[in-house]
Amino acid sequence: CLLQLNQVLKWMIGIPWRCLLQLNQIPKWMIDIYPVVDMTKNRTDASLQAYAHGYIIPKWVREKFSSTYIPDSIKESANEWKASPVKYQGDMSKLPPTLVIVARFDPLYVQGLEYAKKLEQNGVQVTVKEYDDVHGFFAFPSNFAKVAKGDVFDYMSQKTK
Fold first, then answer.
1. What is the rounded CA–CA span in Å between residue 129 and residue 100?
2. What would the pLDDT profile of 57-93 be if each residue is shown by its tens digit?
3. What residues have CB less than 8 Å from 63, skipping those under 6 apart?
4. pTM value?
5. Residue 155 phi, psi dihedral angles, 5° rounding
6. Is 148 exposed, middle or buried (0-12, 13-18, 19+ CB in 10 A)?
7. What is the DSSP letter of 94?
């Protein structure tokens, strides 16, 4: 299962980037739900520290995920933009309008906001939606998930008109 997840994530993270850089085509819009955009192992920020223990994805789970996605044998590749899109230094202005969904009690909260800010600074139209919940809430049967799914539906409806 982890191998399949690993392959799916490698494919998902790079879709708009590969379309832009290799095929010179981009999707009409992009939706990032609590995105992982910095795979470097030495990363520290407020949300990683605050939610390191006792939440949906504690530190040991994130480390296991990271080492599955980028094994120690190729850990230097975590610094490359293909693994850590927030580190991309080229022209991002042609990326599509993007909806970024973040959970305030998520170790990935700060990463999602940094990514949204970087996209905006590069001329990408960005909408950020923040929810007072934990990582993974989008899949839970909760009011926050209902609202978030409604926001995604509204965003897609607006972008496909």
1. 6
2. 767 676 776 766 666 666 666 677 777 788 888 888 8
3. 41
4. 0.77
5. -60, -50
6. buried
7. T
